[in-house]
Amino acid sequence: MPERKRRFRTGPGTLVAAAFIGPGTVTACTLAGANFGFALIWALVFATISTVILQDMSARLGAGARLGLGEALLKSAPGSLGTAIAAGLILAALAIGNAAYESGNIVGGVLGIEAIAGEGARRALILTIALVAGAILLIGRYKPIERILVALVLLMSGAFLLAAILTRPDPLNLLSGLWPIIPENGLLTTIALIGTTIVPYNLFLHAAAARQRWNDDPASVTEARREAAVSIALGGVVSILILSAAAASLFARGIEVSSARDMALTIEPAFGPAARYLIGAGLLGAGLTSAVTAPMATAYALNELLPPKTTASQTRRFRIISISIVAIGAAIALSGVKAVSLILIAQAANGILLPVIAVFLLYVMNRRSLLGKMANGPMANFAGVIVVLIAALLGARGVLRAIETGLATL
């Protein structure tokens, strides 16, 4: 009898979608729709395709070669100096960068609660979001955490889908946004849309999670790659729904907002309280899922650097590292540092690290002696190089913009 086709199962690709649809993405999509209508949908399509290309490499690395990206970097580094540089890159990309991102994730979840219930005791809400994220991470095992994140992603996706339906975007206007143009004063928004979708730490998260989730037989590797492509594509659809809801509800009426919470409050008179609750729930889900996945990525990658490799020691370190990232993020959020400053730090870190880590990923994926048949072929290399070049150009522009803005605020 012919072998039955495997049903689709969620996995690490869903975690990647949960990670990149964070408060930064929700805010960027909201501002893009409010300020430029549907004109920048193409940027989200490009960013989603680019993310699929890079994350497919991570899926093959983890599921097929049974390696995390951090471990593969160390194995590929030439000599002790190369190993030290690789370890430093991992620490910079994750331990430092994700602590800054984590504060924004926690605050984003708080903004979602405030959109639903109104402003209140923000410090207490910050601690509540941090405690919830910490409680999930204390589980310490991949499968239960994945199930929780899948449920949160479904909640978030459903909320934004219903919000888009309520605002009734014009399908023809939506399709017109597929033509690649950058409207006047829209360059930085374009960079933001792409930069918040292609996230460096997701490359570490995906490889480490894929190694735990999938077997290394050919069927499982194929399933891992398909799951990654489908999940990330659906994540891109959610981003497009957010932009479309903002374009239909705000751009057409000339309403200016500065965040997704503002959109939730502004559109209530026209579309009813359900719109406010849906966008607030979506923003809360985006903040909470990212508040879990950023520490996860850090814990997985740093675990790959530290001996011993026993299951008990890795579980213990996973809990310690991930909870530490949550605690640092909560402390930054409680310190009263302006959100603008946190965004500038995140922009600069992402702009510098994304092309560098993508280059290292390409280098690792061409080590046939290490990866065997999971190594890149010519088409994967071509697509990866194009993504890296564009990421480098956008990263450089984002860093320059962050520096310019920082100097202007002095």
TrEMBL record:
Transmembrane segments: 38-59, 80-101, 121-139, 148-167, 187-208, 229-255, 275-297, 318-337, 343-365, 377-400
Keyword list, A-Z: Membrane, Symport, Transmembrane, Transmembrane helix, Transport
Compartments it resides in: Membrane
InterPro entries documented for this protein: NRAMP_fam
Pfam families, sorted: Nramp
Record bears the keyword Transmembrane: yes
GO cellular component terms, semicolon-separated: plasma membrane
One of the GO biological process terms: iron ion transmembrane transport
Protein's UniProt name: Divalent metal cation transporter
Lineage: Bacteria, Pseudomonadati, Pseudomonadota, Alphaproteobacteria, Hyphomonadales
